[in-house]
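Translate sequence into structure tokens.
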Amino acid sequence: PATQSHILIGQPGMTRNVKAYELYLEAFQETQYADRSHLQRAIELTEQAVKIDPQFGLAWGLLSYQYRMAARYFMSDQADLYLQRMETAHARTMELTPDSPGLLLVDAESLQSQGNWLQAEKLLEQLLDRIHNSFGANQSAGLFAAKVGRSRAALGYFEAAATAEPLNQIPVALMGAMQAGLGDVEGGENCL
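Result follows.
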């Protein structure tokens, strides 16, 4: 909607270039599929977006996240290359939008992978304070809570993520797993 676009234009790190924004949206969607071919396509689209508008901080943040996912899960055969690219994109994001939600999310996930759970939790709390109804923030907080054994909290975050993006089945499946883990097998099966 036009009103949503108008609101986004004022956001730190946003672009005024329509083509760059369209590429970013398509890349964001491709990233949600969580497989190698879609991630490769997402990276290509995001790289095009930042080439068109090098000041597009949100796209740099997405690119940092995509490179991290590539190195960690889908293209680990090229992990060193993607980790270098991730650091470059992360630095660019820091330069353009040091307080961006995307940056907080990437940093929180990075801290978790290093085992720095307390600092990761603080960043996730900051993120949720700023964008409490965000799919990404709630799903990440849910995954964090599940990792540290807070199943009930994780369930609440996954429910919020599912509400934010009702067509995305990932948080619904995670809700089912949490419910089953809490002893509600029937509720868990209903989610799946």
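Note: Residues 1-8 have pLDDT under 50 and may be disordered.
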